[in-house]
Write a structure and sequence with these properties.
The complex is a heterodimer of chains A (about 500) and B (about 325). Chain A has helices at about 1-35, 55-65, 80-85, 100-110, 130-135, 160-165, 175-190, 210-220, 240-255, 265-275, 290-300, 340-355, 355-365, 385-390, 400-405, 415-425, 440-465, 470-500, and strands at about 40-45, 65-75, 95, 145-150, 155-160, 200-205, 225-230, 230-235, 280-285, 305-310, 320, 325-330, 370-375, 375-380, 410, 430. Chain A has about 500 residues and is of the alpha/beta class. Chain A folds into two domains: about 35-150 and about 325-405, 3-Layer(aba) Sandwich (D-Maltodextrin-Binding Protein, domain 2), CATH 3.40.190.10; about 155-320 and about 430-440, Periplasmic binding protein-like II (D-Maltodextrin-Binding Protein, domain 2), CATH 3.40.190.10. Chain A has a five-stranded mixed beta sheet with strand order 2-1-3-12-4. A four-stranded mixed beta sheet of chain A has the order 6-9-5-10. In chain A, strand 1, helix 2 and strand 2 form a beta-alpha-beta unit. In chain A, helix 17 (about 440-465) runs antiparallel to helix 18. Chain B is an all-alpha fold. Chain B has a two-stranded antiparallel ribbon with strand order 1-2. Classes of the chains: A alpha/beta (about 500), B mainly alpha (about 325). The interface of A and B includes residues 259, 263 and 478 of A.
Chain lengths: ~500, ~325
């Protein structure tokens, strides 16, 4: 009798397991059914610690008449998650890709895994407003597969401690030499006047691109990833300006004008040094001044900041590196968007997102609750935490830019932040663009990252004084021999083809 | 064991094959509930350990996710060739083995020594609280361990370098100097895992027959002698099995840990297979190549386990199989 009972229990248990397994399948097929209705699955980056509260999402759903299913993936894991989703065939209806990932997916794009949307664009009033020259950067073999989210072409520049500069009687640096002098003065001349030797000039981090290095290198006139020399395209690190920039950093590092451990410093530690009054210069995205000031005023109420962009190199010219004009691209995989009808429905949704009211909703939240309008600009509510919790994550969704989707530009109550917006526009007067954006190289996709790592290591080690110029050139030679030669050849060939 | 079965065999006539099969069937029938209980275990291993092994196929293909395993092109040993001809291959191989050797030689004995020491502690509350305190770090993620180390060791206002400076000594660049990578790695492993590792040894020690100690005491053995002649031999089997299992994990040096410590200046000593798979393979979406590297890593592990097991058996101990 007792055996019998446990037998039953076991059977029930087994049946339960099987049922659970099956019901999972059922869920999936059920959601597939809904999809053909008006559900859209989106996977996108999450730049805040928590997923947002859903009230904005609900409002957007109401206005566009779709049901959104957004998976928020933390920024750090996004590449991995995307690769996993791709390899297991579980991509959502809309895939948000950064530029580097887009290169990786070009193979699949050519293999007809994504919808070509070029032919549909004219049918949609708002989508057809998207900028032609930005879309051009996202073409694959001359065909358009994606929408884009616009970004200012260059937000790079300098943020510095205005109060320190005033104490020492310094103006914003207009040349790299003045920049160097400022870093030196901030380190050696006790800019905070506390009588202690506790300050440094520049705070930098473990990132050669979005940290200080690439921006300073473009002040020196280094090309943006790839540049032309004697009619041939070559990578930036083969240009003398790159070496000059390294020398510049090496000197600063040796003299202690930059944090000694910068190759292992995280972004938050880097910013902390700037906020807590250990360092006085920050090179990177000028818009960061807003969040930096917000945190700094709590611990360091006297600190004042200012932003600056025009810095001349030894060649007497301005220069700043530019991105392709988009922050992310939106692609539509055929594996999840099965019919043309579904594709049209999604395009229609994005078309609606480009209406000013919807673009504003996703960028600034609800008027009166999250922002107010002043001088035709959005003034975010003072309650930054609420804004971060309810609105900020959604900023990764809308497409286009203020000129095309009609949303408000920011009208920040904090003056330097407003100034940074103006300087972003000013940067457009002396941009250095990346000629390799629309070019193809199979080798670059396959081994480019790995090879670049060798160059990055050598760059750091040169700055740290671990290796000399000869050894750096050896690293470049290694790069050439291990496949760099192929990358150069392929880019140049692709460049020739594109001219025809 | 062997002696026992020999005895049994002498008592009974040898069984024919059919008789054996019937006997087996009978015993399965008799113990069916017990056999049923191992079913979930077998299923677990089958589903999560054996089925995924078929995925190794893609290391011989130019795998494209949208074409699937059936549709992707076969490339033979192409990916293995690429791995062996990578100029960094021997550097990575060497780094992996050195970190592994450090784990075995320096880290492995520490939990044993710790548990022997804990075993000698008289005050129960002291023993228990020490035990708890030393295994708390196991529950912290590597990110936290590495971040704490960073705060302690950085040259920009770090505590350790601050103290060195105050004592008038030269500051040491722990984070960027390649010579410091291995000591730092091993110390962090000890910090995080040593306490946790004592659990099994303490359990084994507590199973030792108390009478043996009493007898030894009668013979005038002091505490150290008791430990040397009773405790250690009693847990020798456990130590060897754990050692073999540890060797099986040989190339599991902790991707997360090493990746967090890795930087431009220490790459020549810190790059291991796991980090290589990540930067050269996964990050660029090269699934086949990553699989090939992982496959190779697994093979090395297999060879080492078989070797260690063989050695253990040679030395008259029981191996894992």
């Amino acid at each position: 009798m007792r055996w019998n009972q446990s037998y039953k229990v076991l059977i029930v248990f087994t049946v339960l397991i099987v049922l659970v397994a099956c019901s999972n399948n059922k869920d999936e097929s059920a959601s597939n059914d809904e999809e053909s209705g008006n559900q859209i699955e989106i996977m996108t980056r999450l730049h805040t610690p928590e997923v947002p509260e859903p009230n904005i999402e609900e409002r957007i759903e109401e206005k566009t008449d779709v049901e959104l299913d957004i998976s928020w993936v933390p920024d750090n894991n996004y590449d991995d998650r995307l690769n996993t989703a791709f390899s297991t065939g579980t991509l959502p209806d809309v895939v948000y890709l950064g530029f580097n990932q887009f290169n990786q997916f070009k193979d699949a794009v050519r293999d007809d895994q994504f919808w070509e949307i070029g032919p549909y664009m004219d049918e949609y009033e708002n989508l057809s407003k998207l900028k032609e020259d930005v879309l051009d950067n996202a073409l694959v073999d001359g065909k358009l597969y994606s929408l884009y989210q616009g970004r200012p072409l260059s937000r790079q520049g300098l943020i510095y401690r205005k109060d320190w500069a005033d104490n020492l009687g310094l103006d914003a640096p207009t040349t790299t030499d003045e920049f160097y002098e400022m870093a030196k003065a901030f380190t050696e001349e006790d800019p905070d006047g506390n009588g202690e030797d506790d300050t440094i000039g520049l705070t930098d981090r473990d990132d050669l691109i979005y940290g200080a290095f690439k921006t300073v290198s473009s002040w020196f006139g280094t090309p943006n990833y790839w540049g032309k020399q004697d009619g041939e395209l070559l990578p930036e690190f083969m240009f003398p300006e790159y070496i000059e920039t390294m020398d510049f950093f090496r000197d600063m590092h040796e003299n202690g004008y930059i944090n000694q451990d910068f190759p292992v410093t995280s972004k938050s530690d880097q910013q902390n040094m700037f906020k807590n009054g250990s360092a006085g210069l920050y090179v990177g995205s000028m818009g960061d001044v807003g969040s930096i000031y917000n945190d700094a005023k709590e611990i360091n109420p006297d600190a004042t900041y200012d932003v600056h962009n025009r810095v001349k190199g030894p060649n007497g010219e301005y220069g700043i590196w530019a991105i392709p004009g988009f922050g992310s691209l939106q692609l539509f995989p055929k594996s999840s968007v099965e019919t043309e009808e579904e594709l049209r429905k999604i395009l229609e949704f994005f078309d609606k997102l480009m209406k000013p009211e919807n673009a504003n909703l996703l960028n600034w939240g609800v008027e009166g609750e999250h922002y107010t309008v002043e001088d035709d600009g959005a003034v975010p509510d003072e309650n930054t935490q609420k804004f971060e919790r309810e609105v900020k994550p959604y900023q990764s969704l809308p497409i286009g830019e203020p000129e095309t989707n009609g949303r408000y530009e920011i009208n920040d109550p904090y003056e330097p932040k407003r100034k940074s917006e103006e300087l972003n526009k000013d940067n457009e007067n002396f941009l250095i663009t990346d000629p390799s954006i629309t070019l193809e190289s199979e080798s670059a996709i396959e081994i480019g990252d790995r090879l670049q790592e060798g160059i990055n290591d050598a760059t750091y080690n040169y700055i740290l004084g671990e290796i000399d110029k000869e050894e750096f050139e050896q690293a470049v030679e290694t790069w050439r021999q291990n496949g760099g030669e192929d990358i150069i050849a392929e880019y140049n060939k692709s460049y020739e083809n594109s001219k025809e | 064991m062997n002696a026992n079965s020999n005895l049994e065999r002498q008592g009974k006539p040898a069984l024919t094959k059919t008789e054996k099969r019937i006997a087996l069937k009978k015993s399965i029938k008799k113990n069916k509930w017990i056999y049923l209980m191992i079913l979930p275990g077998i299923l677990y291993f089958f589903i999560y350990k054996y089925v995924p092994m078929f995925g190794l196929i893609i290391s011989f293909q130019d795998y494209k996710p949208y074409e699937g395993i059936m549709g992707s092109e076969w490339v033979g040993l192409e990916h293995f060739k690429r791995l062996f001809s990578d100029p960094d291959f021997w550097m990575i191989f060497k780094n992996t083995l050195i970190l592994f050797a450090l784990q075995i030689i320096i880290f492995f004995p520490i939990p044993i020594i710790l548990s022997l020491m804990l075993n000698e502690v008289r005050q129960m509350y002291f023993k228990r609280s020490v035990q708890t305190l030393i295994y708390i770090p196991h529950f912290m993620s590597w990110v936290i361990i590495v971040s704490i180390s960073y705060v302690l060791l950085t040259m920009d206002n770090g505590i350790v370098n601050g103290t060195l400076e105050a004592m008038g000594k030269q500051e040491v660049n722990f984070l960027l100097n390649p010579d410091w990578f291995r000591p730092m790695y091993v110390l962090q492993v000890i910090w995080r895992e040593a306490g946790w590792g004592t659990i099994i040894f303490l359990a084994a020690i507590s199973a030792v027959d108390v009478q043996l100690y009493e007898a030894a005491r009668m013979d005038g053995a002091n505490r150290f002698r008791q430990m040397w002649h009773i405790t250690l031999p009693a847990i020798k089997g456990v130590i060897i099995i754990l050692l073999i299992l540890k060797i099986g994990d040989v190339l599991e040096l902790g991707f997360e840990h090493v990746y967090l410590l890795l930087n431009a200046s220490n790459r020549e000593v810190a790059e291991i297979f796991d980090t290589y798979v990540y930067t050269a393979g996964l990050k660029q979406g090269q699934f086949s190549y990553s699989t090939a590297v992982g496959f190779f890593k697994g093979l090395v592990g297999l060879v080492l386990v078989i070797g260690a097991n063989w050695l253990a058996k040679k030395a008259g101990e029981e191996g894992v199989y």
